[in-house]
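Hi D.,

Good news: the full-assembly prediction came through. Inputs first.
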Amino acid sequence: MSPERHDLIVRRDRNQITPATEWLVALARPALRPDDVMELELAFVEALTNAIVHGAAEEDEQIQIHATTQPGEVSVELVDCAPPIPRQLLDAAGRYSFEFDENDIAALPESGRGLALMVALSDEVSYRTEKGQTRLRLVRRNRAG
Amino acid sequence: MLARRHEQDGVTVFEIDEARLDAAKAPELRQTLLDAVDAGAQSFVLDLTRVEFMDSSALGALISTVKRLGPLGALHIAGAAGSVEKLFAITRMDRVFRIFPTRDAAIAAAQA
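Then the structure:
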């Protein structure tokens, strides 16, 4: 079966997170197992939230979402005109261990887990800027188990 | 309304009435819980039975709450399942919050 491509455009608005996610989950269900859909959903929400919350200053700026599905694999690309995510932030997200000192809850960070979750729950993450646009692409495949 | 607050067996319970807790809802969740702490609540139950999805921004609201509660307070989580339970596990936050399968179990722990 050849890959199927689907496109969606959303406003830069937190209230767009749920409908965009429901759109992606409906596309992913025939391609991935339920546990893999669940983890893709969280990775996607974290990526989209980052684009909306930390993206361009213009609230009317739109975000393009391109999803490609095939049996056992879903890739999703977010395209917008936001300033690039600093390279060191993405690198740090890949190394984030979620470990913390249980005896020092006061020092527990309240934020900063989103990119780490996105990386941990994706099989591939790529990021590039091109002609004033940033392109964040996640790939999720069925995992063993 | 994001959450319904009521008393059950002498324990304050917040029952979340949303299926999805993401960045659109996290600020209200955070404010609701911090208001309760600032009003004097020291130990309460957050019932997530109806919540099907939660992201890191909502998790951040819970972390803000447990930090505001301090070492003498406790936030008991009830009914976390599926994706929500997985979020707690992946982020290791199941070591920060006291998590129970049912509201009754969480209330019993809060009374202890």
